[in-house]
Amino acid sequence: MYSSKKLKEFTQNVFQKIGCPADEASLAAEVLVSADLRGVDSHGVARLSGYVRLWEANRLNATPNIKVTHHTPSTAVIDGDKGLGLVVGPKAMEIAIEKAKEVGSGWVSVKNSNHFGIAGYHSLLAVQNDMIGISMTNASPLVAPTFAKERMLGTNPIAVGIPAGEQPPFVADLATTTAANGKLEILQRKGEDTPEGWVQDKDGHPITDAHGVKKGGALLPLGSDREHGSHKGYCLGSVVDIFSAVLSGASYGPWAPPFVSFLPLADNMPGEGLGHFFGAMRIDGFRPKEEFKQHMDNWITRFRNTEPVSKDQKVLIPGDPEREMEQQRLNEGIPLHESVVKDLTELAQKLELEF
Amino acid sequence: MYSSKKLKEFTQNVFQKIGCPADEASLAAEVLVSADLRGVDSHGVARLSGYVRLWEANRLNATPNIKVTHHTPSTAVIDGDKGLGLVVGPKAMEIAIEKAKEVGSGWVSVKNSNHFGIAGYHSLLAVQNDMIGISMTNASPLVAPTFAKERMLGTNPIAVGIPAGEQPPFVADLATTTAANGKLEILQRKGEDTPEGWVQDKDGHPITDAHGVKKGGALLPLGSDREHGSHKGYCLGSVVDIFSAVLSGASYGPWAPPFVSFLPLADNMPGEGLGHFFGAMRIDGFRPKEEFKQHMDNWITRFRNTEPVSKDQKVLIPGDPEREMEQQRLNEGIPLHESVVKDLTELAQKLELEF
Known about the structure:
Helix content of chain A: 25-40%
Number of helices of chain A: 10
CATH superfamily of the largest domain in chain A: Malate/L-lactate/L-sulpholactate dehydrogenase, NADPH binding domain
Oligomer: homodimer
């Protein structure tokens, strides 16, 4: 077990070592380790050496000049200047929040960024300000649209955070695919197959090989196949791609830059870097916030008390599992898979740091 | 075959007969028949007598005083005064569009309304103004959350319309369930079973009975079951419920008022009527609109040319099937099922109109 405090320190040290200013390295570490705390292990320190490799490949700028390039009172585009998505993301959400304070809501599309960690983290920044927070990002193309052989979209997550009163906030954070890539990684480590409907092979045929995507296959949009609504998952992933990248001027669809540095960038990229999209809406832009929070408490309580199908199940509120995991891991520490420990140990040696 | 012009005239006459002003009756007819034109037969004139029954039950106000009750420069809440959702919807979107003209984006949550037709219609109003349009609504509770026996949510659709240049606009319009209720109605008429993963019975067990929902069962969230991501469909349906109804002060979750007048309203409704949510974002709030449109054309063309799994399939752009259907039905007329013809004929007799 590793304490989140120690993991954050190490992560901050790594980012400082590649040249990030101390405050940005600290912010990036906070965002990255929040994934480990919330149980999204695929998006936490397991990715740390990947960011370093992006920096080594000159695809990541440790000292970016993050700036607004276009704006109205409620909208903006931000150029992330190839900075860490873990830093660009929170700064963009901060601008959305400032706009919401002024005119009720703020909407920020970001270009020239890269992987921003877990979408849920960013939406919660708005929730802390009594706002609804929305966060999404495009990502490395791994997903085939309905009827398609080719990988055209990323797992393109959407997060929505909504404040409540006595109850903890509602936090939906979902990849627009049937299963996120992290779920495949867990099965790969266990040597198990996937359920049907998660993956197809390079010819577009359904398979259950957890390594199928690495072999040229693709993840499937939420819904799995046409009969079960995969065209809806494809629609949602497309909306995320367009809001994050076409609106901002980032690279979109099959041209989205891959996170892994060993894959080359596409020829003729139609935009700059990866894109994100953030929204913040002030609750009291719609109704008095205490009134809203009472009704959210009522909503949450009613849904939590929904009669379950079987007695050993309970109906969950979006955000429940991650919050319970966070509490547990704050108390007991974060378990890391041996391959991650090995990776971080090697990273520490390379950068002459202690892990 | 029935011409859309004739169906609109008849629909307008019906709404005028129950007391709607001519301009609002005309608008409502336009919205309702747009569903028949776009091939969403369940949401078109098949529902006309249902609106009349709501009016007979005193749940619908033919002469509403639709007004803004709360606002900031980019947000508002609108009280629909129990008016036709078919009229309240476009008026609310118009306010979102006006706000977007002023400050870049506009976001309007609506209470005290009822069924607003197809979500896609409203999002296209923004598209006509070079804006991205978003439209959603809560609806009669028919959907069980993951692990639940009870019906807690509606099919809660989300529509997103995005303008392009040479290409037609991107229009995603999707229920947040595996299958919309209209799909069940088609199977009921044919006497066929549903695929697995669409419906559960009153005890929460998976069934394929197309009449299952009427027998106390429930529709399933997009994803069908936990293993295939139904918790994501449940998240999305919940977000639609909260944006449409908790934010506005409408009735939410299991208390959402049913469309059919023979079902009683819930006791202790926590809000007024049904809720909707609309958004409009000016393209040039983010980047010059001609530049955006060129990239949308590029996006659409690239996705349309995605290599399909088999030669007899093609990868579609959201909005393609509905637009093709609209063209065909404008030319050839709209086919109505004999049960709908019978229903409209009886309605005409009752209201002393000609059908």
